[in-house]
Amino acid sequence: MTGMFAHDALLVSLIAVLFGAIVGTVGIRRGRQDWVQLAFGAIYANFVLVTIATGAMIYALVTHDYSVSYVAQVGSNETPLFYTVISLWGALEGSILFWAWVLGAYSTAVIWINRKRPGTLVPWAAVTLLVVALFFAILLVGPANPFMPVFPVPADGPGPNPLLQNHILMAVHPPLLYLGYVGMSVPFAFAAGAMFSGEVASDDWIKISRTWTMIAWGFLSAAIIAGMWWSYEVLGWGGYWAWDPVENASFLPWLTATAYLHSVMVQERRGMLKQWNLNLMVGTFVLTILGTFLTRSGILSSVHAFTTGTIGYYFLGFIAFVLIGALVMVAGVSEKLKTRGRLESATSRETVFLLNNLFLTAFCFTVLVGTLFPLVAEAARGIKVTVGEPFFNKMTLPLITALIFLLGVGPALPWGVASKAQMKQKLLPPIAGAVVLGAVALIAGARNPYAVLIFAFVGYSAFANGREYWIGMKARHAAHGENWLTALSRLVSGNRRRYGGYVAHFGVLFVALGIAASQSFRREREATLKPGETITVAGHTARLKEVWGRQEPQRAVIGATMEVLDNGRVVATADPRMNFYPTQSSPVPTPQVVSSIGGDLYFNLMAFDQNGAHATVKLIVQPLVPWIWFGGGIVVLGAIIGVFPNRKRRTVVAPARQPVAAVPIPVATTGGGEA
Amino acid sequence: MNWKRAAIAALFAVPVIALFAWGFTKDPNNIPSPLPGRMAPDFRLPVFSPGEAPTTLPVGDTVHLASLRGNVVVLNFWASWCLSCRDEHVELQQFARRYEGKPVKFLGVLYNDFPAPAINWIREMGGQQYPSVNDANAHTSIDYGLYGVPETYFIDGSGRVAYKQTGPVTDAILTRIVDSLIAALPASGAAAPADSAAHVLAPAAPGSKGTL
Amino acid sequence: MSKRNWAILVAVVLVATFGWLLYGGLDKNVVFFLTPKELLAKGDAGYDVPVRLGGLVKPGTVQWDEKTLHLQFEVTDDTSTVLVHETGAPPQMFQPGMGVVIEGKYGRDGVFEATNLMVKHSNEYHPPKPGEKPEEMYKTLIKGSTP
After folding, report:
1. CATH number (domain holding residue B89)
2. Which residues of chain A are within 8 Å of residue C21 when distances are taken between CB atoms?
3. Torsions phi, psi for B38 (to 5 deg)
């Protein structure tokens, strides 16, 4: 019943979306404002209809309505309510439904906010969003229909994938990822809108697109960190990143979006890089679709991949459509995008941005090549290969190191030209930070040159970014007599994008530090212990207290209780476990982490004796891992600061509609302008 | 629009799309099964579900694979907790009914499951045409290198595995393979005697807890 | 040369260098997926390079010493067999007869030293692996410890 009703809602939404896309296109061509309004209406209607369908799915899940195919596939009577609800995105069909819902929400928000804007930019963007929505609507009534009737109705289902019901982070990571991925459709739609409407040569549309890129980027950053955290807490090998195709798929658009967020500033300030920015925007969107395609089509081997089905062909068709369409459009309008400004000096902020973009794109390209190479190798030479971590590490470490350094140099340099004196004054003091952290790394025993360099550059960049705050606060303190806290908050709210950016920089530095430390100083050991015996790794000792078992409604749990000792005193306990699900023959390992600010003790139960006489436990000591999660939070905080509009103030930025002068604007007022 | 540039740009997409399209023809997770072309591992397993007339076997009997030699054998590994087994069930049953009287024997093999829920499942799903046996300790599943359920093995008249289907079977697959295997059977009278040798009657083995 | 040509030259050199680096990186770091038969057929070229070895665990060959954590077994594709050694515990459901993929290097002593052992995983509808009765593994423990 619920299923039929929801399926009808999806069917109507398909019609609405198709109708909206057609009527919108015709309406814009004929200049019929009322028709364009209908297209907007189709966006809102689609959102309402998909919301109804999603609500119906949650209802069906919660009420264990196994006549709905998706519920029969992922539901079970024993699964706790919480995991029942989040299994909405646990398997293919549900995730597509959720995806469509997020797209509907974004589209509605951005079109509603900009509905009164004159010109055809917004209508064309609406049509683009409707076309994307059309694709997902087709999937939902066709190959990925989650509401297929099941007959006869089963009495119980197999339950969601145990890996997904094993950890709370699974409730967080997928929605964040979808919010990030789908969010990139909005700036893409505006890029397409700008190309169709001919507004592409103006710089106004990028204001809308950059804000929405930043929102999506914030979600995507959070999703990547949450995904790392989930791998770390669940998969049991003590790592957080394995260059798995699915991980790479989420990272690729992040790289291009990060590049865009930087290079768009060069376009705003100097009227340069228009074509480039358009490419980045379109590329980011293509990469999100590519990522979805790679994870849903099963053409690459991954631990996270969804089951293959006919849906892959639809994605192939869509990706072909998007790729060809995007290339044709970008190449077609390229002549309108002649650069007006030019680079004045090698020592300026825009040079740093150019390098930043160069490295980020090279990074993106490297990861893309490494991800797709197995496919190429098999197609070209018929051999089955995998591209291992060594390739990615070796190729990307120099880029990462350089990017961390640039992250300190960029904010320190002014736009336009930096004089020798300025450079000296700005670039030399942070070396103190580099020396300190580099020395710390060396004393701690790091010998890998990249590791030492990364530590040093983190120190350099932290110093440089912190100094920007310090300078700004000092100026306010002196000029307005504000106390330090007021000065800080006014400083930030006066130019949120700039100071939000610096906050995000700090977050990235924390992440880099956490990764560098945990990779350099990771120590591990595995041992078979009888109760009372201890294991010692890098000065940390833990004792096996007991091996125990417990039957829970949906699973059986075997655990080993480990006591962390400090001078013979128990300071913490950990229960690494194995969860056995009836429909899953391999147990799902559940490692346990004892965290402190200095790092983690990571326990994993590897094997156990059936009578509890002994257990094999792995203990990994990983310094500074919590800093990665903390840093991720700071990155997101930076994005949040950057997204909100600035406090009203006297603006020094020229009106944007006015074409940027061919002569480079003298940028003496560096401190006040948008960074 | 500069269409010439646009067209050149579009050409760049072609190899990428071709690569993905090609990728579909491959399953990266596939470990090639060593079985096709080799002798099907033999087994003796207890019947827990009799099937429907005329292909019934009494519950508790033991099926010996070797005794089916001379027929085409379709071994379907399934379980009541497996959703994809539902997907294939109707087509598989219809096909089995249609091929009654031909020299092909169907056999369900229950994997990692218990007879009680499995019998419920069969009732719920509207019956199973052929008998099912219980692979209680999964030894047979191991012998066949089972990767999951459903999986279907097609064994030719000489006892070799001719084809293995991972995931649900469809009527088209069944028709194509079973027809070609029947056609390859030795022409004279393979079918007739096979019927009498369809199973070796044996008292329920002490270890077989197939029917509780 | 004009400025524009210089720019193009620099771009070409940069891209070429980068491409060359990528190619070199791939060439050295690609890991082949081989069956025991393919590995042995490689002869000298098969030694001491990282590979992923895929096959079935040969029944009756598994030895695990829980004290020293030495795990040893043979992997077969039914025509060839390779002896594998790993330090560490086997995956809990590791069973003779099941499909495995092993990352590691084949040494000249004829032993494949594994760094990573994976039982084939699939997420959605293929839950169990051959020959695994989870209940048997934990039943005694649960009985033994629940009051």
Report:
1. 3.40.30.10
2. 395
3. -105, 170
